Amino acid sequence: MTSVVLVGAGGKMGARLARNLKRSSYELSFVENDASRRAAIERELGIVCQPVGTVMDKDVLVLAVPDNAIGSVAASLAQQLRPGSMLIVLDAAAPYAGQMPARTDLSYFVAHPCHPSMFNWEADAAAANDTFGGNGARQAIVCALVQGPDHAFALGADIASTFYAPVTKVHRATLAQMAILEPVLSESITATCLTIIWQAINEAARLGVPIEMSRDFILGHIYAEAATIFGHVQGARMSDGCLKAIDSAMPKLFQPDWRRLFDKEELDRSIAEIVTP
Predict the structure, then answer these.
(1) pLDDT tens across 7-32, in order?
(2) What are the phi and psi torsion angles at 194 (to 5°)?
(3) Dist. CA 87–CA 59, nearest whole Å
(4) Using one digit for the tens of pLDDT, what is the confidence trace for 28-50?
(5) CB–CB of 60/89 below 8 Å?
(6) CATH of 3-173 among 2.30.30.760, 3.30.70.120, 3.40.50.360, 3.40.50.720
(7) What is the distance between the alpha carbons of residues 10 and 65, in angstroms, rounded to a whole number?
(8) Domain residue spans in the chain?
């Protein structure tokens, strides 16, 4: 039986992972250094958590810790890991920044959730309200084997599919591709555009349009327009008026060189900011 230890089990993300791992057939150990979080997760899930450093001699170590702590935590625990074991992190930033320990005898694996799609239909009410995933709603995940034998990917993907369950698809990516997905696509571009939309709703409120009205109107339009632009509805197309509005607004909203966000220099700078304590 594969032994798995979850470090940071009492944190926001760690608790989600612990809840799903608890239902698995893996031999499990849970680690949480913060005493209050340790007590809370023990009450909530009925699991016993131990302080860090006490149960590291396992097949797989999962780090559910902040991006800017992964490098230091991994370095402090690496010497306790036996050769051939696997270290799983939940974001590509620290491995991309070269912050993983220099242990060629370990497998390094990254697993990140896509989060439930706006096009999901969930019959269960709890799953329908699960916007982040891991609590009933279906989602795809993206994984990368940073180092280690190729057969190790299957083990990492299986464990990730367990703690991010229910998983519909596992996308295998390179580390560089994962860094493009986040932070560039998901944060630098998508989150920024959504922030502009929210600021525009508040600007409309300044001009007399109630926020609740704009919110209902725009969330519906985001859903319909995304279905059209992303090809979710076969044969659908934007109206001629909408296409003209896009052409007119594009140069006013975005710099002509916005694609430089994909340049390696920009990506390296963004990653460095993420992993800096």
Answers:
(1) 999 999 999 999 999 999 999 999 99
(2) -65, -35
(3) 9
(4) 999 998 889 989 999 989 988 98
(5) no
(6) 3.40.50.720
(7) 10
(8) 3-173, 180-275
Strands across the sheet containing 167-172: 49-50, 27-31, 3-7, 60-63, 86-89, 107-113, 139-147, 167-172
Structure tokens at 131: 């916007």
Strand partners, 151: none
Strand partners, 3: 27
Are the C-beta atoms of 86 and 62 separated by less than 8 Å?
no
User: Exposed (0-12), middle (13-18) or buried (19+): which is 143, by Cβ within 10 Å?
Assistant: buried
- Element of type H or E holding 153: helix 152-163
Amino acid at 224: A
144, 221, 232, 262 from 216: Cα distances, Å? 38, 9, 21, 33
